[in-house]
Amino acid sequence: MGLFSDFLRGSDEVEKSSKIRWTYLTEKGQIEEILLQSATKPVLIFKHSTRCGVSRMALKSFERDYDVDKADLELYFLDILKYRQLSNEISEKLEVHHQSPQVLLIKNKSVIYHDSHYQISVETVKEALLK
Question: Would you kindly state where each structural domain of the chain is located, as residue ranges?
Fold first, then answer.
């Protein structure tokens, strides 16, 4: 398997190897929970494609650099290959065009920041949290 096996890991493997404690998005009802939660604590959704090298690199970079206190941000992970319909619902409900990889930062039930591909970074998320 070698080098490419690391890029093509599914969400099960992400969970085992990540230093981040992701909450996994698997059900439509979680979207409403996230919106309600965002009224008291910002929420970040990381949309990831397990078949995309760019997505894998963005995820690894994000996880490596992540240093936001758990009290300041709630983290959700969406495997878009397993849950594409859920990804589409999120895009429609939050009115943000679907991309992968993609981060959506939600505060007070609205997306206050989103980015994709190589623009995803912990620093830009932290800057958005301060605004």
Answer: 3-130
Quick one: which of 116, 31, 128, 6 has its CA closest to 72?
128
- Give, as one character, the DSSP assignment of residue 38: T
pTM beyond 0.85, yes or no: yes
Highest mean predicted confidence (pLDDT) among 1-10, 16-25, 64-73: 64-73
**What CATH fold (topology level) applies to the domain 3-130?**
Glutaredoxin (3.40.30)
Token pair 């980015």 in the structure block, residue: 115
Phi/psi at 60 (nearest 5 deg)?
-60, -45
Q: Which two tokens stand for residue 46?
A: 């990381």
Residue found by looking up tokens 């609205």 in the block: 110
Phi, psi of 120 (to 5 degrees): -70, 125
pLDDT by residue (tens digit) across 9-47? 555 555 555 789 999 999 999 999 999 999 999 999 999
**Is residue 53 within 8 Å of residue 7, measured between CB atoms?**
yes
Q: How far is CA 28 from CA 25, 78, 85, 87, in A?
A: 8, 12, 9, 9
DSSP for residue 125: H
